[in-house]
Amino acid sequence: PSQCDLLCSQNYPLYIRSVPTENELKFHYTVHTSLDVVDEKISAMGKALVDQRELYLGLLYPTEDYKVYGYVTNSKVKFVMVVDSSNTALRDNEIRSMFRKLHNSYTDIMCNPFYNPGDRIHSRAFDTMVNSMMMQVC
Fold first, then answer.
1. What is the pTM of this model?
2. What is the CATH number that goes with domain 3-136?
3. Where in the cell is the protein located (predicted)?
């Protein structure tokens, strides 16, 4: 099981995808509790985040069942990914590259003149990319 969320700088969801969908509410709770950790990491990095251009926040926190990872864009859009703790094949480099793919796809959406920043994301291409990425994780 895994979940991928994109949240704007005001922390409301722009995009949510869960695989499988039966524990979706539990994933929402996990993602929203992780936002405090994301904000702490961003404020702790402060100026260093801007200087290094390191957007990957790494493992936010592990639970018994899941690991929660974070990423933040320059425009403060937060990406949160929840993956199963039992998936030991997933390394930090792979998580980092998944976030880069997400960020590149998000950038493509932002470049669309018909997309209003802050609206929920409804894109078949983005859905396809996220679904293929999540199938690798599950």
1. 0.86
2. 3.30.450.70
3. Cytoplasm, Perinuclear region; Endoplasmic reticulum; Golgi apparatus
